[in-house]
Amino acid sequence: MAKFQLTLLIHAHQPVGNFGDVFERAYAQSYLPFVDVLSRHPSIRLGLHYTGSLLEWMERAHPEYFERLRGLVERGQIEIVGGGYYEPILVAIPPADRQEQITRLAGYIEKHFGARPKGAWLAERVWEPQLPSSLAPAGVEYTLVDDNHFLGAGFELSELFGHYCAEDQCHVVNVLPGLKALRYLLPFRPVGETLDFLRRAAGEHPGAFAVMGDDLEKFGVWPGTNKLCYTDGWLENLFCELEKNADWLETSTPGHAVASHPSFGRADLPTASYMEMMEWALPTAARVRYHALTQEFASRPESLPFLRGGIWRNFFTKYCESNLLQKKVVHVSGKVRKLAEKGSRDKAFLSATEQATSLLLRSQCNDAYWHGVFGGLYAPHLRTALWSSVIQAEAIADRLSHRAKQYANVAQIDLDADGREEIYFTSDRYASLLKPDDGATICAIDCRATNVALVNSLERRLEAYHAGLKNLGSQNYQGAKSIHDQMRVKEEGLERWLHYDRWPRHAFRLLLFSPTKTYQDCATVSLDEDAALAGGRYRVVDVSKTGATLASEESADWPAEKTFAFARTPNGFEIGCDVSVRRTAPGAASVVIGIEAVVNFLAPSAPDRYFESSGQRYPLRWASAVPASSLRVVDEWQKTEVGFKAPAARDFWISPIETVSESEDGFERIYQGSQVIAIWPVELQAGAEWKGNLTLAVSSVD
């Protein structure tokens, strides 16, 4: 009788834009020791998947690792599995880009390891029913999802010891169900429990196979797992026990498991990911209710598959910053594809088009588009890397599409696909998106000379895990546990930073509030500004290639008008915002009027990023009120500076934007940029009008 098989597909990934020391630490703690242990057990066979961003780094930093992998491939011990080159969520990018991502990684693997991959790792196991129409034409024969996908379609757990066929428009791909039970056993439970699970499965399903697909980082990078797996020998023990039980059990690469077992038949799977992801994707209030419901039904595991969370695309609704970046990438993808359709044979044109394509693919790396325990939306350096790539890709595409070196364009389009038109300004110096329906604010400013996204901040939101911070106490666990079960803090007193914004963090928001407020009220989000002026709908009065005028539609007592003007400067560009506010209510009123800017230069403690006022330098986490005569913020690392000019303003109020979020290392406070508000104390009689201006002067720094 055929032996029962254990099929492991182990996935290794580092996001585009992650720090070099993080790559190196993961290599030393996980990637290298895992292969060291595997090499000592030649009968152990499994699948390994490395993303393109990680392979590129390894090729530069540790070419000897490639030699190790080639040796394991040659003796048939490992199968290198493909996927999207930069680990995109495939359903979130255009079909043509899916093909390019998959075939690009397949070509890289074939070049370096001698065989074109038959399988593809699916980023975050995000599945939608139409995916076979993208996977199969790209040469993918199989992929892996979770048992959760199958259980949600009505399959029984006992039916998941093999593989199925998924089809869309007659395109077929084999699908392997990764078992959650194995994900939680490896490596967090004693090895004997894994063998007990496999022995029971072999008795119930002779000749079948069980699959686990999960992160290589859980074998050394996750807290406590390096000691567990290598110092304490858990991984060595696992492989030894698998070898000792070779009379009834063997390991198999995923490709061999598929090839050596007939398909169980057809599986029409719902849109899904792993259960934790489907919880994270829900809006906060719904996530809290959903979690309570799963706890209530924990004693009825047969019912849990029918308690469905959200879908991965919910992150675009939950986080407008994620949606904006993704829609920008889709928009730029269309521009880059048009270049390829021109069929030019000019070498310079073709080289620039290839560069733009590579940058576009980099901007599709999934991590900065979502947030859970792992997702990097809250990590500014990961968002920045994607923004930088898509900014550069779009600048190349626009340059190749214009004959003139200097140009300016405007388009009124619904770029972020929220049902409301924005005004999109582009030129050889900048790109900027103005949202009339959100207070006539600018949500994105791209400096094309340095490929820097100047706003790139994050709204402070209530997250489901914030309630746990106040009750953490003795739960600051140590040791090796699944990340999903850990609660750690990287800084005491984080609950002091739990304040929540009323609006997304955009530039040129108009704030009208009481004279009793001070700059300290910015940090606690307690200015209590007039909602209609700050976040209400504005009507577009006039639009040109270099500016626009908009009028408020929801403020009865304080009607306002904003006029934006974009201008080239010798070393950059300026965005000016002229604002007029009238008082139509009876009687006089004393108020403060502020025009807000938001700039994020990422590293609050780095000496090469700083504010400068009256000749003095201050760190980015600076909070203060300073005279409005002189203020600029400088990023020498990204070679960009922003000067603030506000004629007749009394002060600039400066306050850092701090979020508190969850990560694999625990709860942490993260700097998400600074708000700078130009301040004018105003007393207006009925019928009187106030006028002011805030100008941002953006330039590159040598």
Give structural notes.
- The protein has 702 residues and is α+β, with helices and mostly antiparallel strands.
- It starts with a strand and ends with a strand.
- The model has no long low-confidence stretch (mean pLDDT 95).
SSE map:
Blueprint (H helix, E strand, L loop, with lengths): L3 E9 L7 H20 L6 E5 L1 H10 L1 H12 L3 E6 L11 H19 L5 E3 L10 H4 L6 E5 H6 L11 E5 L2 E8 L1 H6 L5 H14 L4 E7 L9 H7 L2 H11 L4 E4 L1 H7 L14 H6 L3 H13 L17 H5 L1 H22 L5 H16 L17 H22 L6 E6 L8 E6 L2 E6 L5 E7 L4 E2 L12 H4 L39 E5 L6 H4 L7 H5 L2 E7 L2 E6 L7 E10 L2 E11 L6 E11 L9 E5 L2 E3 L5 E4 L4 E4 L4 E6 L5 E13 L2 E19 L4 E12 L2
Parallel strand pairs: 1-2, 1-8, 1-9, 2-3, 3-4, 4-5, 5-7
Antiparallel strand pairs: 6-7, 10-11, 11-12, 12-13, 13-14, 15-20, 16-17, 17-18, 18-19, 19-28, 20-27, 21-22, 21-24, 23-26, 24-25, 25-28, 26-27
Helix pairs in contact: 2-3, 8-10, 15-16, 15-17, 16-17
How would you summarize this macromolecular structure in one to three sentences?
By secondary structure, the protein is α+β, with helices and mostly antiparallel strands. It is built from 20 helices and 28 strands. Strands 1, 2, 3, 4, 5, 6, 7, 8 and 9 form a nine-stranded mixed beta sheet that branches. A nine-stranded antiparallel beta sheet has the order 16-17-18-19-28-25-24-21-22, with no helix packed on it.
